[in-house]
Amino acid sequence: MEKKSFFKTKQGGLTIAFIVIILAFILILWGLRMRQDAACMAGFILMVAAMLYAPVKVFVIDRNKKKS
């Protein structure tokens, strides 16, 4: 059995997504404090992308790998 790196496992991917969500939250708070709409929007987009990582991986990427 091959030994996989932690970040190549499902748990590692979700950990990275969680870290990105936390960083996006900090970016949103910083954007609100500095009154920069672009920073708030960038944080929001990062947060949405990180939250959609798991469903997209399971229902799109993994299913395409099974078909080929």
Written description of the protein model:
Helices cover 81% and strands 0% of the residues. With 68 residues, it is mainly α. It has helices at residues 10-34, 37-51, 53-67.
C-alpha Rg (nearest Å): 16 Å
Q: Count every helix, treating DSSP H or I runs of 4 or more residues as helices.
A: 3
- Name the helicity range: over 70%
Bin the strand percentage.
under 5%
What is the H-and-E element order?
HHH
C-alpha end-to-end distance: 23 Å
The counted number of beta strands is 0
Mean pLDDT: 93
Q: Major β-sheet, in short?
A: none
- Label the overall shape: elongated
Helix/strand-derived class? mainly alpha
Q: List the uncertain runs.
A: none
Descriptive key words:
68 residues, mainly alpha, 3 helices
Helix-strand layout with pairing:
Elements: H1 10-34, H2 37-51, H3 53-67
Helix pairs in contact: 1-2
Condensed summary:
This protein is 81% helix and 0% strand.
